[in-house]
Write a structure and sequence with these properties.
Elements (H helix, E strand, L loop, with lengths): L3 H13 L12 E6 L2 E7 L8 H9 L7 E4 L13 H6 L5 E4 L11 H8 L3 E4 L3 H7 L1 H9 L3 E9 L17 H11 L4 E5 H7 L16 E5 L19 E6 L13 E5 L1 E2 L2 E2 L1 H10 L4 E4 L3 H9 L5 E7 L26 E9 L2 E8 L3
Parallel strand pairs: 3-4, 4-5, 6-13, 6-14, 7-8, 7-13, 8-9, 9-10
Antiparallel strand pairs: 1-2, 1-3, 11-12, 14-16, 15-16
Length: 363
């Protein structure tokens, strides 16, 4: 049965196909249906380019009259880099609009829906709303929290170890799980590690996809004392941009690096002020960050309550050992009640490994 949920599912799939390409804008898909047939489809492909509704109406042409528009996000009602879509919808001749979710942007926030209703168009809100909210979790977070959406990603053995006592960690997971990580990199603005990872592994932190060319996110390194080698792979900025977050007072020393951008932040209790760093990254356009650091970096984000999502890869291996390295170091807590409580969203098998998707419980 082809009902509202059926067509909205198609619109959501269209929107999801542009993951990582529309930042800082939301992911949006649109489907126009007339007499049970799809006459137009569209998606927002990239920030600054036409919105989903524009592409759908161009395809539908005169068939849009008296049709139904399915759109995953409330049509915008403000002028940005493109004209407001609510006016386009109002003048299109459609008789009904089905919207998955209201836009959290204060500049929209129901205005687009009201404009359509005032024009006599029937508007229904909330079809597959939870799916739409999850799809645009990064955008919603940016609008509400005014900071990057931060994802903690790590791979560990079944007994919760990310490396041996000597620091050896290649490879905990199999090829399929490692390939999946590159799909995640393709979707984010920034990938973050600590200088310890740079010194130990000299990673490129680029995206390497099996079937297509990926997007290289901005490489971000937390380096309080500027120990990043001048010839490290992450300093080769013709491959991908790099930002080093370091302590105030290192301005002169930073001049020895070529092509690397710097953010200077305060130091508190011997550590970079992670909250100040995150806000500074947001100000330069980083809307989401994949944290791939070791235990020290992970602990800094955990301590600051800045982690918004977890991707945890669990390998079918048991390492053992009192000194093997765990995903989070830092100060110990006395009681289990002090733990960050999570909700498991999804568990799936990727090759021989498991990938757990989890969110912190808020409030």
């Amino acid at each position: 049965m082809k009902n509202d949920q059926y067509y909205m599912t198609i619109a959501l799939e269209l929107a999801a196909s542009a993951k990582g390409k529309t930042n800082p804008n939301p992911l949006v898909g649109a489907v126009i249906v007339k007499d049970g047939a799809i006459v137009g489809t569209g998606l927002h492909r990239k920030a600054g380019e036409p919105h989903a509704e524009v592409h759908a109406f161009r395809m539908a042409g005169e068939h849009a009259k008296d049709a139904t528009l399915y759109v995953t996000l409330e049509p915008c009602s403000h002028y940005g880099k493109t004209p407001p879509c609510a006016n386009l919808v109002k003048d299109s001749g459609v008789k009904r609009v089905v919207v998955a979710m209201q836009d959290p942007n204060p500049e929209v926030a129901g205005r687009g829906i009201n404009l359509l209703r005032e024009a006599g168009i029937e508007v229904e809100i909330g079809v597959l709303e939870q799916d739409a909210l999850r799809l645009n979790e990064r955008f919603i977070h940016n609008m509400v929290a005014k900071r990057p959406f931060i994802i903690s990603k790590f791979a560990m053995t079944l007994d919760g170890k990310i490396a041996t006592a000597s620091g050896h960690s290649q490879w905990i997971t199999g090829e399929e799980a490692r390939a999946d990580v590159h799909e995640l990199r393709d979707e984010v603005d920034g990938i973050l590690v600590g200088v310890g990872t740079v010194l130990k592994d000299n990673p490129a932190l680029t995206t390497r996809l099996l079937d297509r060319k990926g997007k290289n996110p901005t490489r971000i390194v937390l380096d309080r004392t500027l120990r990043t080698p001048l010839d490290a792979q992450i300093t080769q900025t013709e491959v991908a941009p790099t930002i080093i977050v370091t302590a105030r007072g290192n301005e002169e020393r930073s001049k020895q690096y070529t092509g690397v951008k710097f953010i200077f932040v305060s130091v508190k209790e011997g550590r970079l002020d992670i909250n100040e760093a995150v806000m500074a990254l947001y100000e330069v356009g980083i809307t989401d960050i994949l944290v791939e650091g070791g235990g020290t970096v992970n602990a800094a984000f955990l301590r600051a309550k800045l982690i918004d999502k977890f991707f945890v890869y669990v390998a079918p291996k048991v390492l053992g050992g009192a000194n093997s390295i765990t995903p989070f170091t830092g100060e110990d807590v006395e009681m289990i009640d002090a733990a960050m409580h999570l909700t498991f969203e999804n568990v799936e098998k990727i090759g021989e490994d498991l990938r757990i998707t989890a969110y912190p419980k808020r409030g």
